[in-house]
Amino acid sequence: MSTAQVERLAPSDELDHLKAIYGKDKPDRLYGVLTDSFNVLQNRAQMLLSLVTITLTITGFSGPKIAESSPLARFSIAFGLAFVLLSALIMISGPLRLSWCTRTRAGDIDQSIIKLIDQRNFRTKRYIRASLFLVIGLTGYVFSVISFLITG
């Protein structure tokens, strides 16, 4: 089994790669691929936002009781909620930001597609960062629940 090296392409190289796959004179297909990418990011970010909402809802009901149980639980729940909220802010300012592909125009079609690839990459980085912050926040939150269960 060979270990092929994976290469991260610059946006202009990615455009060339997409043209090799879909054809040089198929900008509609290239726009379709990017539109699908934005849809995937949107759907995944909505899923993460649902986790944020569930966390905040549960905290509304049980948060005060958990926080009363011990200083460690109080710190952990505050720490966790801060990261959960930060995750939501990153998602709203990144992958959930509404922007239409057809509004992006930069010179010719190739430059416009490269600009869309740049936007997709930016939103992907924001999605990854929001996911990481959500995991950190949920970890703090779960730690507060564990502390609550131990100390009662």
Descriptive labels:
152 residues; mainly alpha; 4 helices
Write structural notes for this entry:
With 152 residues, the chain is an all-alpha fold. The chain has one domain. 80% of the residues lie in helices and 0% in strands. It has 4 helices and no strands. The chain is elongated, with a radius of gyration of 21 Å. The mean pLDDT is 89.
What are the secondary-structure elements, in order, as H or E?
A: HHHH
Determine Rg (CA atoms, Å): 21 Å
Share of β-strand residues: under 5%
Summed up, the domain count is 1
Flag low-confidence runs: none
Number of strands: 0
Structural class: mainly alpha
What does the average pLDDT come to? 89
Q: How would you describe the shape?
A: elongated
Q: Please, how many helices?
A: 4
Largest sheet: none
* N-C termini distance: 54 Å
The helix fraction, in percent, is over 70%
Question: TL;DR?
Answer:
The chain has 152 residues and is mostly helical. The chain has one domain. It contains 4 helices and no strands.
